[in-house]
Design a protein that fits this description.
Distance between the termini: 80 Å
Structural class: mainly alpha
Number of strands: 0
Largest sheet: none
Order of helices and strands: H
Number of helices: 1
Radius of gyration: 39 Å
Length: 117
């Protein structure tokens, strides 16, 4: 059976544990394991805090997006009323400018000048 951690087999893990036992002694291994456990717990708590902060911030962002969507929907609902009023005023302005524009084209053509758009 092969462990996926550094691709070590069972015999290799046993050999590493035996070397650690020889280097640190039987009395130091529990202290070493406690320190390792505290370090792992500290890292786990830190990652949990970070995840909790991210989740809280995501909730705030979602709330802000919901408010923005509501405001956009309200504005969009109000815009057709404003657009119909602005279209009627724009049509009135275009009608008065349309006759002046055709007069200008005729006068430009008579003088030999052509206006290119």
């Amino acid at each position: 059976m092969t462990l996926l951690f550094f691709d070590l087999g069972g015999g290799e893990v046993f050999m590493i544990l035996f070397i650690v036992l020889l280097l640190f002694g039987a009395k130091k291994i529990p202290e070493f394991a406690r320190g390792l456990g505290k370090g792992i717990r500290y890292i786990k708590n830190a990652t949990d805090d970070i995840q909790r902060d991210i989740q809280n911030n995501m909730g705030d962002v979602k709330n802000d997006l919901d408010v923005n969507r509501k405001l956009y929907a309200e504005k969009r609902d109000q815009d057709p009323q404003n657009q119909s009023q602005s279209k009627s005023s724009t049509n009135e302005n275009e009608g008065s400018e349309g006759s002046e524009g055709s007069d200008r084209k005729e006068s430009d053509q008579e003088s030999g000048q052509t206006k290119s758009d």
